Amino acid sequence: MRTAIGLFALVAQAVALLGQTPPRGPATTKPKQPAGTSIGPHRLGETFNEWLAVEKIELDAVCQSGARSVSMPENGINASKDVIEKYVGDSYRQKEHATTCSDLGPIRETGSGEYDDHRGLGTGYVHSWTFENRILVEQQSVYDVNIASKELGFLKEAYGPPASITKLPQQNAFGAKWNDTLITWHLPGGTTLYMKAVGGPQADLIVTFISRAYAKAAGSREPNSYISTKP
Asked: Which among 7, 23, 78, 137 is least surrounded, fewest beta carbons within 10 Å?
């Protein structure tokens, strides 16, 4: 299966792409670039099929693999070590493919939905991708809050200085108080980038790229206190 990519890698790829100089040629006009904010190899506004291609997911093959049963070794626990290891690997792969198929299949059928990529669990991050009418409209990553300063540096390097930094006072039912920090960029192409450092017992770092049109659309998403409706 694919290799999970953390947002550090995504941002580094975006910076590298921004710094490349296109080769000179005889053309007199520049080719039209696809619309949408780059998020590493992806871009907000890409189609679901384009997203699958970048992720190197052949969904038909994945679904077929996920539906295929894996038989126990003929000799059971008395089988050789190599046979048992192959059985364990095949079983894990089959379950992983079945989960991927059940998560992505409905998005392919309806054109809309959210895919949570949990391959980063245990390594400090989780990615989610939201599609509407077969278009990528939101990408969100959740990290350990301890990397907030380093992450802010990467985002500034890739996307420039933020438009605003806001302290959000919080208090839980036990009376504990703390400040969450919300940092906002308004990017070209109708995209807003949020970095929210959540304090208190949750202590997460949430980085969100979202289409402003999608964020404003009535009923397009559940209420979210840190998503601004301002352009």
From this structure: 23
Beta bridge partners, 167, equal 181
CA distance 72 to 80: 12
Residue tagged 């009923």 (tokens): 219
The pTM of the whole model exceeds 0.85: no
Task: Give the contacts of 173 (CB within 8 A, at least 6 positions apart).
Answer: none
For the beta carbon of residue 153, count every other beta carbon within 10 angstroms. 11
Q: Tell me 75's DSSP state.
A: T
Cα(125)–Cα(137) distance, rounded to whole angstroms?
20
Residue 100: enclosing H or E segment and its boundaries? helix 81-110
How would you write the pLDDT of the chain (231 residues) with one tens digit per residue? 443 334 444 434 433 433 443 333 334 333 344 467 889 899 999 999 999 999 999 999 999 988 877 666 666 666 676 766 776 777 778 888 999 999 999 999 999 999 998 665 555 578 899 999 999 999 999 888 888 889 999 999 999 999 999 999 988 888 888 889 999 999 988 899 999 998 877 778 999 999 988 988 845 454 444 444 443
Q: What are the Cα distances from residue 198, in Å, to 9, 136, 207?
A: 22, 25, 11
Classified as helix, coil or strand, 205 is: strand
